[in-house]
Amino acid sequence: GDVPEPSPQAPLAVLSKVELRVSCKHLLDRDTLNKSDPCVLLLMQSQGQWMEVDRSEVIKSNLNPVFAKIFTVDYYFEEVQKLRFEVYDSHGQAGVGTHDDDFLGGMECTVGQIVAQKRVTKPLFLKYGKFAGKSTITIISEEISGNNGYVELAFRAKKLDDKDLFSKSDPFLEIYRIDDDRSEQLVYRTEVVKNNLSPIWEPFKVSLNSLCSCEEKRKLRCVVWDYDSRGKHDFIGEFFTTFEEMQKAMGENKVQWDCMNPKYKIKKRNYKNSGVVVLLDLKIHRVYSFLDYIMGGCQIHFTVAIDFTASNGDPRNSCSLHYINPYQPNEYLKALVAVGEICQDYDSDKKFSALGFGARIPPKYEVSHDFAINFNPDNDECEGIQGVVESYQSCLPKIQLYGPTNVAPIISKVARVAADEERTKEASQYFILLILTDGVVTDMADTREAIVRASYLPMSIIIVGVGNADFTDMQILDGDDGVLRSPKGEPVLRDIVQFVPFREFKNASPTALAKCVLAEVPKQVVEYYSYKAFPPRCPRPPSPEPSLGSPQ
Questions:
Q1: Quick one: which of 497, 477, 507 has its CA closest to 331?
Q2: Omega into 363 within 30° of 0, i.e. cis?
Q3: Which pLDDT score, from 0 to 100, does residue 3 have?
Q4: Which of the four CATH numbers 3.60.20.10, 3.30.750.200, 3.30.70.2740, 2.60.40.150 does domain 16-144 have?
Q5: Cα-flanking dihedrals φ and ψ of residue 518, to 5°?
Q6: Cβ-contact 64, 133 below 8 angstroms
Q7: Residue stretches of the chain with pLDDT short of 70
Q8: How much is the pLDDT for 194?
Q9: Is the distance from CB of 22 to CB of 71 less than 8 angstroms?
Q10: Where would I find the C2 domain in this sequence (predicted)?
């Protein structure tokens, strides 16, 4: 009967399943005599090809259908997963036609956008980007995490009926969950307390999923038996409750139930009960997943820091790592776009901080290790990934590449913003700092110190080594081989640094780089908020549908 206690440090699987529910409004009417009979197809992009994953039922004669079908998709934070929903007018036995005249409209989005917004409403488009009238499609997402924590319960009983002739009863307690089909599922059986009519059972833990399928109002049946070594246990009594009712036992309060034997109730005139069962204590231990935080409204704020030291080579020279080739983005841009494209789905304002280090900057041409590449010291944010790319390209001719490669100032700068965020005591913003550098850092001691400090804050650091330098010393920062320590020997609270040399992905697709460096982030987010014991902010109800006027 022991339930292992999930440790907050255990890495939680990044893979989750997400349920999508679909509805449409104002569909086009393709049928002359009655209304369209809509059906939705879900397609997923795989190696550039759209593949049908699943389709909904057909709803007869309805231009505002709410589909009963629930689409289930696997969710990976570190990938851009493109989805396409297509709505067709179905024709009876012939099934869903794919003729243009049966096509009621389509919509594309990513899984990341849907889980970040929880509810997405978009217009439907016909071929060639034409609006399908005022038609819209709404997708609502819900994570099937199956593990939203566990609960610790402590029961005792008083004055139970005595079922034994020569000694007292040997009681034990069983808890059953009553499922939707009325079947009963055993949740827990306590140990037997020998020869005792007022037993105190050992406290025990069960997952909320197993206790009540995470539904507080689900009915539970609790039965007390007198143990019999031959397995013919005597029924003492039972009572019904819910997890909602049990929660009244938190703190100093206790909840108690009459333990009833229905047969005695009928037979005996002044039967009161066969004893009482008391819930002495209840503790809830929640275990949240990355998606619980994202769906609770946690924003991922993305900062990129670019190395402008002289070892990159003169940007005007085609051998330079900063050379801008109109036909082929350089490694800095490739890494920035690959990682940024994923992060942008999780940031509602789509503004990214973009910093540079190791250059002499105007007007005085003094060396700076944390300047805004848009040269606006009051606001280092750029509009979207494209804004970062443009600021990068326009700042190159204005600066002088210099040195040394100091990254501690930038880590500390982002950490200051993260520390302000931490004071809100809410899971509302998490910071990812992407450092792109062509060499081993010069200020290793200060960097180690800054990382140890940052490990106590809501932030993660990704370092991508660009070019062909020897990055052996950088592996120290990625705590995978052992625990990173500050120069004074203080260990990091959690491993927040991921280092990869870009050259290992030179011939792979950009998505492979993003996958590798972002795979750890969901675990790091959960570790931080678990350590802080910050729950997700109240899961936002999906926002009301925005009214969509007629397309411009």
A1: 507
A2: yes
A3: 41
A4: 2.60.40.150
A5: -95, -10
A6: no
A7: 1-15, 92-101, 144-148, 230-231, 480-481, 538-552
A8: 95
A9: yes
A10: 1-124, 131-258
User: Phi and psi at residue 60, in whole multiples of 5°?
Assistant: -70, 135
Residues constituting the chain: 552
Statement: 290-532 belongs to CATH 3.40.50.410: yes
Strand runs labelled E in 14-170:
16-25, 38-46, 49-55, 66-75, 82-89, 103-110, 119-125, 131-144, 150-158
pLDDT of residue 552: 35
On whether the CB atoms of residues 244 and 217 are closer than 8 A, the answer is yes
Res 215: pLDDT: 83
Question: Other CB atoms closer than 10 Å to residue 186's CB: what's the count?
Answer: 11
Q: Which helix (H) or strand (E) holds 206?
A: strand 204-207
The residue type found at 25 is K
Domain spans of the chain?
Answer: 16-144, 150-285, 290-532
CA distances to 122, 246, 501 from 543, rounded to whole Å, are: 13, 32, 41
Q: What is the pLDDT of residue 450?
A: 97
Q: CB-side exposure of 191: number of CA atoms within 13 Å?
A: 12
> CB 3: neighbour CB atoms within 10 A?
13
Pairing of strands 497-501, 459-465: parallel
Provide the pLDDT for residue 96: 61
- Look up residue 549 and give its two tokens: 């006027």
Pick the CATH number of 150-285 from 3.40.50.150, 3.40.50.1220, 3.40.190.10, 2.60.40.150: 2.60.40.150
pTM: 0.67
